[in-house]
Specification:
Layout: H1 2-24, H2 28-66, E1 73-76, E2 82-84, E3 98-100
Antiparallel strand pairs: 1-2, 1-3
Helix pairs in contact: 1-2
The structure holds zinc ion.
Amino acid sequence: MRIIFKTVGIISICITVIAALIAMFQNPVIALIGGFLGFVNGALMFVVGGLMERVNDLEANMTSVQRPSPGRRMACERCGKLYGVGQSKCPYCGNDTSVDLP
Ligand SMILES: [Zn+2]
């Protein structure tokens, strides 16, 4: 996701520069304005990509500390309740055949 933003930013700068060069032959003023706006847009995308990178890193740190990933759970075939994969039987009804959740 964050890489997409930076890539899109770079690509949009490249396209803008090329388009501005082509348009230069026909209308230099519009080419300059369009080129400038496109360049700013691409630069903003690049900056946003960098910011998202930082936010993602912060979130990754926070979630890894606060919420360790829960273990896999299975649904009991008979009563439908969820229990941990480590348990061989359903703690609710004692059924020992169970189905993996999708
Ligand atoms: Zn059960």
